[in-house]
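Onboarding guide, step 5: your first structure request.
Type a short instruction followed by the sequence, for example:

Predict the 3D structure of this protein.
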Amino acid sequence: MSDRDRCASVQHEQRIVQALQAVSEPTPAKVRKALNSLGYIDERIHGLQQDSRATPFYLDLRESGGRLCEAGLAAGEETYVTVCTAPATGGFAVD
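The system replies with structure tokens like these:
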């Protein structure tokens, strides 16, 4: 992963966590809506599935040959987001 991707990941993580911690009952629909409100389009949001009282997700943030993605779990105050590496080419295969 490039230095640019590593730097960008921190900014993405902070704003995503802040937005998702405010989501009560983090269902896939509510998580998608929160991510959309931050400017993430549906084509970049993957893996939304209800898991008990939390919703895991992946964001494909590849740009200009980068491989940045974020993996997260929307779970109210326990929400977390961490950097991951997307495939270099092709689609994002997590759905």
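Each response can be followed by summary notes, for example: The chain has a mean pLDDT of 88.
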